């Protein structure tokens, strides 16, 4: 069964597609927010309100400021999911990570960064092995530090399916 999620988003006009000549690379960023406390318990109402006030709202303000600066081109959250998705312009994956480390929800989120390639470039970028050049970096810092599983069980570090 196909799963479709609506993405609530604000776009920056004139900044797409990712194949603009001479422009910085664009990256798709997914920041998954935890569903429970680090010990696995569900938060209390007070704890949930504290998280919203201390982490979520300041994170949305920080991301809105990055959007106003033109560093985040578009972003939002998929309906019914605990994640934030962004299209970011940066010189490298490391540049994306340095920028996101200042967002308050960074420590609590599991973050994936994938470079976007234009559709038109796909056929030109296929090396002999048949896979497009450039990869996906799965940067799941929060889960690695806390020793939690989750997406690591389903995804290989390069963002592809794990080898069988």
TrEMBL record:
<feature type="compositionally biased region" description="Basic and acidic residues">
    <location>
        <begin position="140"/>
        <end position="152"/>
    </location>
</feature>
<protein>
    <recommendedName>
        <fullName>Muconolactone isomerase domain-containing protein</fullName>
    </recommendedName>
</protein>
<feature type="region of interest" description="Disordered">
    <location>
        <begin position="124"/>
        <end position="164"/>
    </location>
</feature>
């Amino acid at each position: 069964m196909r799963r479709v999620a609506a993405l609530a988003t604000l776009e920056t006009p004139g900044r797409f597609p990712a194949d603009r000549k001479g422009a910085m690379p664009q990256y798709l960023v997914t920041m998954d927010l935890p569903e429970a406390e680090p010990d696995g318990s569900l938060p209390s109402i007070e704890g949930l309100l504290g998280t919203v006030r201390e982490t979520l709202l300041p994170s949305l303000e920080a991301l809105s400021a990055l959007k106003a600066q033109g560093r985040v081109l578009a972003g939002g959250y998929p309906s019914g999911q605990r994640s934030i998705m962004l299209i970011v312009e940066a010189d490298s994956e490391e540049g994306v990570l340095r920028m996101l480390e200042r967002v308050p929800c960074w420590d609590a989120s599991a973050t994936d960064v994938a470079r976007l390639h234009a559709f038109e470039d796909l056929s030109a970028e296929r090396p002999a092995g048949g896979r497009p050049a450039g990869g996906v970096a799965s940067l799941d810092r929060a889960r690695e530090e806390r020793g939690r599983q989750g997406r690591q069980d389903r995804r290989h570090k390069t963002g592809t399916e794990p080898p069988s």
